[in-house]
């Protein structure tokens, strides 16, 4: 007798909206946060929390401290490069809530985990923040067996910069029909100079090209590391022929177009929760924590919180260029403004510097002597140009090089190459 087909029993619905006032919703959000954090503090083994100094982990720690009878055990990882280091903010939160805090500074050349990560992930996984995530899990496991994390709030409450950009772009799309917008912005984008080195708000070429597309098409390309045209440039002729008209972005486009949603921001968050969150964020935390024998819990993914957040009016998610607006407002009673409203940093790893320094030869080897070169999937001349342009500082290809490196390292484990 054949096994019954899997049936989805629950989904997040962005098509409804709360009717209550902003103040009432703020109070309800705090109550849900307390419930979510409190229920995940139940443990018969040592318990602690990751503390990055960002909004989400700081909120979790604040609510843990309020509920706990003893000092919460917290830990954070920083880099010895000041622009990448957030430990000062984490220390500020730890002092405010009198946590038992431990921190460890990782050297900027801490890329020795590459082989370890390839082993533990057991599949190609190219989010470079897996390195510091592994290190913070290692640090936590020295004193606790369970750690609470702040993951999930960005997807649930529109916390990524790309959500803010997409929301703004959708407002422009709403002013002009696609028949006019496509050719107009497409032409402007084609003639505007490329500036990969610039922060995204100043990359007008990318914005113009995005506005020429539909909302789902523009957002899908904002998420990818390499655009479809960029991938075509490094594929071999055989690879292009084998792939045919396959487009990796189509899955996200389909998710957005079929989403139970009212607007483009809803669609983007829905797709992130269905694809980005389980495929990247939660995979990263799960594999790295389990690798060191640590259980990571995610209170901000409590289904009641998720359902509540999906019904928030758009202006309580993105407001005056701020993502996660209601979450930040609700935490003002616990956290200072420099924690809540400073620019989002994320778990940044200095891979751009690595590929221009100690990993420069590794970048070149990917094109000529590595496992990837033997697959015939990529054009070796194009790959060398990607590496040389990055090393020379002509462009920032670090994320693409990291993808290629992790794929290269995974191939022997997958196919015995």
Could you spell the SSE succession in H and E letters?
HEHEHEHHEHHHHHHHHHEHHHHHHHH
Report the radius of gyration as a whole number of Å.
Answer: 22 Å
Residue share in β-strands: 5-15%
CATH superfamily of the largest domain: HUPs
C-alpha end-to-end distance: 39 Å
Output the strand order for the largest sheet.
3-2-1-4-5
CATH topology group of the largest domain: Rossmann fold
Total beta strands: 5
Number of helices: 22
Q: Tell me, what's the shape?
A: globular
Assembly of the depicted chains: single chain
Percent helix, as a range, is: 40-55%
Features:
417 residues; mainly alpha; Rossmann fold; 3 domains; five-stranded parallel sheet; 22 helices; 5 strands; 55% helix
Detail the topology: elements first, then pairings.
Layout: H1 22-39, E1 47-50, H2 55-67, E2 73-79, H3 87-96, E3 100-106, H4 114-121, H5 130-141, E4 146-148, H6 153-157, H7 161-173, H8 178-191, H9 204-211, H10 215-223, H11 228-234, H12 237-243, H13 250-257, H14 264-291, E5 295-297, H15 303-310, H16 325-330, H17 337-340, H18 351-356, H19 360-368, H20 371-375, H21 380-391, H22 398-415
Parallel strand pairs: 1-2, 1-4, 2-3, 4-5
